[in-house]
Amino acid sequence: MASGDDDAVIEWKVLLCADCERGFGRSSRAKDLSCPHCGCSAPPHLLSRHLNPADAQQAIALANIPLEIRAELTKSMSNSRHKEQKSKRINADDLPVILRAAADENGELDVDSLQVQLSIAGIVMDGEVFADEAAVAGILLNIGAGRWRILD
Questions:
Q1: DSSP letters of the chain?
Q2: 112: Cβ–Cβ under 8 A, 6 or more apart, which residues?
Q3: d(CA 147, CA 139)
Q4: What is the pLDDT of residue 86?
Q5: SS3 for 11-52, per residue?
Q6: CB atoms within 10 A of CB 150
Q7: Among 60, 48, 50, which residue's Cα sits nearest to residue 24?
Q8: Where are the domains of the chain?
Q9: 128 vs 7: which has the higher pLDDT
Q10: CATH number of 94-150
Q11: Count of CB atoms within 10 A of residue 107's CB?
Q12: Residues 49-108 pLDDT 10s
C-alpha cells in the first residue's frame, strides 16, 4: 500500500503473537499491535494481508486451529463458504441497509466502503459494478470517480 494513499484502501493484517503464538488481526491503520489474548507488546509476526475483512477473519481462525486438524477443517470451510456465496443474493430489504452502512453522514459513499459492506453481507460482487447498477436503477447518483450519493 502506498504511503500517500492511506485513505483509499484498508488492508487487514493477520498477525501471530511472539509470546502466546495465537493469531489476531489489525487494520493497516491500527497503531497498537499488542496481542489481545495475552497483552504482549513485542512485535508480532505477519502471517498474511487481506483487502477483505472476511478473508482476514477466516485466516485468523485458521491460524488458531491446531495443525493436526487444520487441513480437514480448511477443506470443510472452503466447501461451506463456496455454497454460501453461490446462494447469497441481494435481498431488496438488505439494499438500503448496505448502502446506509457504506455511506457517510452526508449520504455519500465510495467504492471501498461499499465493497466492505458487500463483503460483510456475504455478497460477492464488485462494489463499483454494484454502485453503477444502483445508479442506473435510480437509487444512487454518481457524484465523481468512485463516489455516489444515496437518493431518497
A1: --GGGTTT---EEEEE-TTT--EEEEETT------TTT---SPPEEEEEESSHHHHHHHHHHHTS-HHHHHHHHHHHHHHHHHHHHH----TTHHHHHHHHHS-TTSEEEHHHHHHHHHHTT--S-HHHHHHHHHHTTSEEEEETTEEEE--
A2: 8, 9, 10, 127, 146
A3: 13
A4: 47
A5: CEEEEECCCCCCEEEEECCCCCCCCCCCCCCCCCEEEEEECC
A6: 17
A7: 60
A8: 3-87, 94-150
A9: 128
A10: 1.10.10
A11: 15
A12: 888 888 888 888 888 888 778 777 767 766 665 555 544 566 667 788 888 888 888 999
> Which residue is it, cell 488458531?
64
pLDDT at 148: 93
CB 82 within 8 A of CB 74: no
pTM score above 0.85: no
